[in-house]
Amino acid sequence: MQQDVNDIIYFDKDADISLIQSKKVAIIGYGNQGRAQALNLKDSGVKVRIGLRKKSKSLKKAQIEGFKCQDIESVVEWGDLICCLVPDQYMADIYTNNIKPFLSARKTLLFSHGYNIHYKLIKPNSDCNVIMVAPSGPGYAVRKKYKEEKGVPTLIAVDQDATSDALDIALSYSKAIGGTRACAFKSTFKEETETDLFGEQVILTGSFPRMIKESFKVLLEDGYSPVVAWFVCFYEVKNIVDLFSDKGIDDMFKMVSETAEYGGQTRADRLIDDDVANEMKEILNEIKSGEFHREWMLEAEKGMPVLDQYREPNQTEQLFNELTKVLLPKIKK
Ligand SMILES: NC(=O)c1ccc[n+]([C@@H]2O[C@H](COP(=O)([O-])OP(=O)(O)OC[C@H]3O[C@@H](n4cnc5c(N)ncnc54)[C@H](OP(=O)(O)O)[C@@H]3O)[C@@H](O)[C@H]2O)c1
């Protein structure tokens, strides 16, 4: 076990930052990840330019924050590293129209999620490197931690190694965005894509937020105060997540009351039963077979009709959102 961990985990000492400092980095997109990674790279002494579409909403912001911005085609011609940091559902079109025709041999294509490579929406020429540096956290955390002289762990992977140093480039890039300050761990495009989608769907943006909203609704329907329900079902989540993130789940159970431990363990058996476990397996199968990918691409093509429905809050959600808006700024940190 110890051996396996050491084989795939890297830290600052394992990465040579001068490698990325000697290259020109073209960041395509200035959104969640693009902005955070670009700012961290710049602060780490790396030459960065931003590639944006015509009439981009982010142009002014990127310029104010000190970047030279160009159209995507020009920045692809300029850069040694081309970082594709635009939404996954539009990435293949952008690659085909604005990147591929301007990409020369021995350059490096970098992704922060394996989706487009794994599902073969993008098939790069074999004469360039294809690497992934995927922070395990949102862009705002990537920037915030970097400024605190810390970092967000990054998953790194190499799909094509045309220059025989693709892994070193990925490690160097990870170091420059603060990743190896925490750690970088090695994986593959397939493993990252499938497990990332699974984690989102089953835990992070799937059952977690839904459990919070459903439990809030149950308390409201039974006549409890919305404010108390909000604290119990939503606000306390952060404290327990912080606890088990810092200490592990086993130690978390040692640090809550035995009433909480007993009640939680026995009721979780009822909530997360075999049906739920089987549904998780089904969700994983849909990801592995490409069924989810096809569904999601169709949704994007149609202009997100299903997602738009979910974005329309029902009555309980409206109340929950209002409470969040009022209470969060009031609570002293
Ligand atoms: N969200 C996260 O924190 C996170 C975490 C880990 C990995 N990732 C991965 O990082 C990558 C980027 O995700 P993101 O969340 O950072 O994306 P994002 O914030 O949605 O990206 C926004 C940027 O993409 C540009 N863009 C959008 N559609 C475009 C189009 N059709 N043509 C050209 N440019 C377009 C936007 O242009 P305008 O400026 O003109 O609007 C903007 O600059 C994805 O592969 C994602 O899976 C994201």
What topology, given as strand order, has the largest sheet?
Answer: 1-9-8-7-6-5-2-3-4
Small-molecule binders here are: NADP nicotinamide-adenine-dinucleotide phosphate
Helix amount: 55-70%
Strand content: 5-15%
Poorly predicted runs of 5 or more residues: none
The geometry reads as globular
Indicate the radius of gyration in whole angstroms. 22 Å
The chain-level mean pLDDT equals 96
Element string (H = helix, E = strand) = HEHEHEHEHEHEHEHEHHEHHHHHHHH
Q: What is the total tally of β strands?
A: 9
Distance between the termini: 39 Å
Outline the structure in words.
With 333 residues, this protein is α/β, with parallel strands linked by helices. It has helices at residues 2-8, 17-21, 32-43, 59-64, 72-78, 88-99, 115-118, 139-147, 166-176, 179-182, 189-221, 226-247, 249-255, 258-271, 274-289, 291-301, 305-311, 315-330; strands at residues 9-10, 24-28, 47-52, 68-71, 81-84, 108-111, 129-135, 154-160, 184-186. Strands 1-9-8-7-6-5-2-3-4 form a nine-stranded mixed sheet. Helix 3 (32-43) runs parallel beside helix 8 (139-147). The chain binds NADP nicotinamide-adenine-dinucleotide phosphate (NAP). Residues 29-34, 52-53, 56-58, 85-88, 90, 94, 112-113, 134-135, 138-139 line the site of NADP nicotinamide-adenine-dinucleotide phosphate. NADP nicotinamide-adenine-dinucleotide phosphate binds at residues 29-34, 52-53, 56-58, 85-88, 90, 94, 112-113, 134-135, 138-139.
Please render the helix and strand layout as text:
Elements lengths: L1 H7 E2 L6 H5 L2 E5 L3 H12 L3 E6 L6 H6 L3 E4 H7 L2 E4 L3 H12 L8 E4 L3 H4 L10 E7 L3 H9 L6 E7 L5 H11 L2 H4 L1 E3 L2 H33 L4 H22 L1 H7 L2 H14 L2 H16 L1 H11 L3 H7 L3 H16 L3
Helix pairs in contact: 3-8, 11-12, 11-15, 12-13
